[in-house]
TrEMBL record:
Coiled coil: none annotated. The keyword Zinc applies. It is an enzyme of class 2 (transferase). Residues 6-332 form the Cobalamin-independent methionine synthase MetE C-terminal/archaeal domain. Its EC number is 2.1.1.14, 2.1.1.13. This is 5-methyltetrahydropteroyltriglutamate--homocysteine methyltransferase. The keyword Ligase does not apply. NCBIfam families: PRK09121.1. GO terms for molecular function: 5-methyltetrahydropteroyltriglutamate-homocysteine S-methyltransferase activity; methionine synthase activity; zinc ion binding. GO terms for biological process: methylation. It comes from Micrococcus yunnanensis. Gene3D superfamilies: 3.20.20.210. Its cofactor is Zn(2+). Keywords: Metal-binding, Methyltransferase, Transferase, Zinc.
Amino acid sequence: MTTLIPTALVGSLPKPGWLAEEETLWSPWKLEGEQLREGKLDALALAVADQERAGIDIVCDGEQTRQHFVTTFIEHLGGVDFDRRETVRIRDRYDASVPTVVGEVGRPAPVFVDDAKALRARTDRPIKWTLPGPMTMIDTLADRHYGSREKLAWEFARILNEEARELAAVGVDVVQFDEPAFNVFFDDVRDWGVATLERAAEGLTCETAVHICYGYGIKANNDWKATLGEEWRQYETSFPLLRESTIDTIALERHHSRVPAELIGLLRGKKVMVGAIDVASDEIETPEEVAATLRETLEFVDADKLIASTNCGMAPLARSVARDKTAALVAGARILREELGGE
Ligand SMILES: [Zn+2]
C-alpha cells in the first residue's frame, strides 16, 4: 500500500431494491435459485463499481451475497440446527430468535470462497473480506452441545481459520473479523476473546484486521449508546490486548461517537482504521468534517498507519446516502493526504 491514508469501507453496503427490501437490515431475498445467485453477483459487481468510481482504495464486496454478517456464515456449518430456534439476548442488548448448536460444529465446504473469487475478478485494487469473529458468533447462537462459551469459541476459531486461509489463497489481501462483542463482554475478551481471534487469524499469508464497533444505527443500539455516558471507554479493555496481538489492523468507531481520541494511543504501532463516517445518521458528512475527524487522531496514530473508514457497515442506509457518504470519505481523506504532502 503506497497511498498515504488509504480509504476502505468497514463492510456492508445497501442492497439494490430488486435483490432485497431496501433500507431493511437482514431483509429476505427477493429472488430464488439460480436467479438469486446471479442477482447477488450482479449486486457485488455494482458495489465494486461504486467504490472504484468513488475512489475507495481497499475494495470490499459490500456483503451483497449475505443476508446477515453472522448467521449467513453459520448457516453453512454443520452441528447447527436452524429449525430449532431459541430466543437469546444478543450483545446483552436485544432479544433475537437464533439457531441452536446441537452437535459438533464443522465446515463441510467453503462458505464465501467463490464470492471472494468473484470480487477478486472484478477489481485490480486490494480487496478486503469480512468474517464474523468467534466471540460474536457464539453470541448469536443458542448452545445445547458444548455448554461453554469458550469451548465453542475455540471451535469457531478453528473453522474461521480454515475459511480465512482459503480466502487468502484466492487473492484476498485483508481478512477482517468483526467483533462487536468485544465492546460488551470484557472479562471474556481478556480470558479468551483475543486468543480465539488470534487462532482464527493464525498463519494467514494476507493481512488481518478486527473491527470493533457500537453497532449498526438501529434503535436497540442507539438506545444502548444513550446509556453509556459522556465518555465511551469500552475500547480500553481490548486495545492494550490487541496491541500485543498478531492482528495487523484495528478498525474502530470515532465520528460522532463519545470515544475519547486518546484511547487510539493504546494501539500505538498497529494500523488503525478510523471510522470517520457516522452510519447511524442520514446526514452526509462534509469532506472537511471527515478530514477533521481523521486529523485529530494523528496525535495517537502514525500517519502511515492510518486508514480512513466508516464507523460500521452501511447496509441499513438508502443507497444514495451510502454513495454520498462514500464520496465524502474519499474527499476527506484526500484533504488530509494533501496536507501531509503524501500520495
Ligand atoms: Zn460494526
